[in-house]
Amino acid sequence: MRILAIGDVVGKPGRQAVRKLLPELIDSQQLDLVIANAENAAGGSGLTAETAEDLLTLPVAMLTGGNHTWRYKEVLKLLERDPRILRPLNFPEGTPGRGYGICETAGGVKVGVINLQGRVFMDPLPSPFEAVLAAIEELKKETPLVVVDIHAEATSEKRALGWFLDGKVSLVFGTHTHVATADEEILPQGTGYITDIGMTGPYDSVIGMKKEAILERFLTMRPTAFNVAKGDTRLCGVIADLDEETGNCRSIERVRIQVGDGP
């Protein structure tokens, strides 16, 4: 089966890119399942019921999150009621929502999805390495196909997790930095891996935000308001072909499509 993971969807431009490009991409690439990181879908930071619905009315089976998931209070109820929306698994016990779940293709093939958050240069959460194994065990009671979104800053932490999970899951992909890396590969025990799948949103920007405000921040070292940029909108992510019997990854390739180019 072929699965598309869409990199951090940033604000309205990112959501519009998904809406415009995804249907043709599904057809041209014969995709069976789509998931997307949506922690920046609302105004460039956070997730709301409206922005979640905007993505989930499309052929997107599940949304993953990250450190910005919590920006709007309404997300707490949203996480509790909708199993299609994940938050990082390794938040402390009692945190609203779910860190993993199962979605299905149109043909009824089940895929487990796990959302993790890193700790290096980020909040000091419980270890994602310790949290993930029990989730994998639960998901594998229903399916050999398990994919992991590791939302983290440090390449070293993501890479280490990839090696830690090699042979245990089908795919490990990184999010958060908004910059796609060129290190996609299949690890020795059959797990597909890429450090970061990039950003879906405006690239005439600094990681999705208006560059003028970011430059002012760096030049003056004073706080500035960050707003979502416009222009040069692209959809970025990764397509992985997974073996439904073994759970191994057969191929992995990066995707980058500019709005107006088409797949």
Q: In a nutshell, what does this entry contain?
A:
This protein has 263 residues and is of the alpha/beta class. The protein has helices at 11-29, 49-56, 74-81, 128-139, 155-165, 211-220, and strands spanning 2-6, 8-9, 33-37, 62-64, 100-104, 110-117, 146-151, 171-175, 185-186, 192-194, 199-202, 233-242, 249-258.
Describe, in plain words, how this protein is organized in 3D.
This protein has 263 residues and is an alpha/beta fold. The protein has a single domain (2-258), classed as Metallo-dependent phosphatases (Purple Acid Phosphatase, chain A, domain 2). Helix content is 26%, strand content 26%. The protein has six helices and 13 strands. The chain has helices at residues 11-29, 49-56, 74-81, 128-139, 155-165, 211-220, and strands spanning 2-6, 8-9, 33-37, 62-64, 100-104, 110-117, 146-151, 171-175, 185-186, 192-194, 199-202, 233-242, 249-258. The strands form two sheets. Strands 1, 2, 3, 4, 11, 12 and 13 form a seven-stranded mixed sheet that branches. A six-stranded mixed sheet has the order 5-6-7-8-10-9, with helices on one face. It is globular, with a radius of gyration of 17 Å. The mean pLDDT is 96.
Mean pLDDT rating: 96
- So what's the overall shape? globular
Number of domains: 1
Number of helices: 6
Low-confidence regions: none
- Return the string of H and E elements: EEHEHEHEEHEHEEEEHEE
**Secondary-structure class:** alpha/beta
CATH class: Alpha Beta
